[in-house]
Write a structure and sequence with these properties.
5 helices; Nuclear Transport Factor 2, Chain: A
């Protein structure tokens, strides 16, 4: 019995040292984490600045597929529901049902009810990214202050766009429409 107690103590202390060694090997300095997040944010910014104009230059028949490819599945469903609130289409929700369904996932007050993806107008001539500033950069989650403009219609759209990196791919996971 005494030998069993001694053996148990060796096992317990041996496991504690292994855990401490694993923790030490995973430590990063604050500067390393910030540099990695900043680099990821810059990469995400370039992606947004490229993908947004491509979306608006694409044939309208391709835009739904592009939206699906550039957003998370959940955000795609949210924005589709927001666009179709109170419309006479299959799966359309009332405003009340829409808010109840999505209130725990997204801010429904800035969803762009009955508006399209990225801009609130149905028509456009040449949508450009005028401003894309990094607001926050957390590990694989970035938010940007974005201004889209269409000089042909003399329109500007202020947006706060959340981008995540998932499986080495950037995806939009939220857009707050500020005007």
């Amino acid at each position: 019995m005494k030998n069993l107690c001694i053996l148990s103590l060796f096992f317990i202390f041996g496991c504690q040292n292994t855990v401490k060694e694993n923790i030490k090997s995973e430590e990063f300095s604050f500067e390393e984490v910030v540099a990695k997040n900043d680099a990821g944010a810059e990469e995400a910014k370039k992606w947004l600045e490229k993908i947004i104009p491509e979306y608006f230059k694409a044939d309208i028949s391709e835009q739904d597929k592009m939206m699906r490819d550039m957003t998370t599945k959940k955000y795609y469903e949210f924005k589709t529901d927001a666009t179709n609130v109170d419309l006479d289409v299959d799966g359309s929700l009332t405003l009340k049902k829409f808010k109840e369904k999505w209130e725990n996932d997204y801010d429904t007050n800035f969803a762009g009810i009955n508006t399209g993806f990225l801009i609130s107008d149905q028509d456009w001539i040449n949508v450009e990214v005028r401003k894309c500033e990094i607001e926050t950069a957390l590990p694989n989650v970035y938010t940007f202050n974005v201004i889209l403009a269409d000089d042909g219609f003399k329109a500007k759209y202020r947006r706060r766009i959340k981008v995540i990196k998932e499986n080495d791919k950037f995806l939009v996971d939220g857009i707050i429409e500020l005007n």
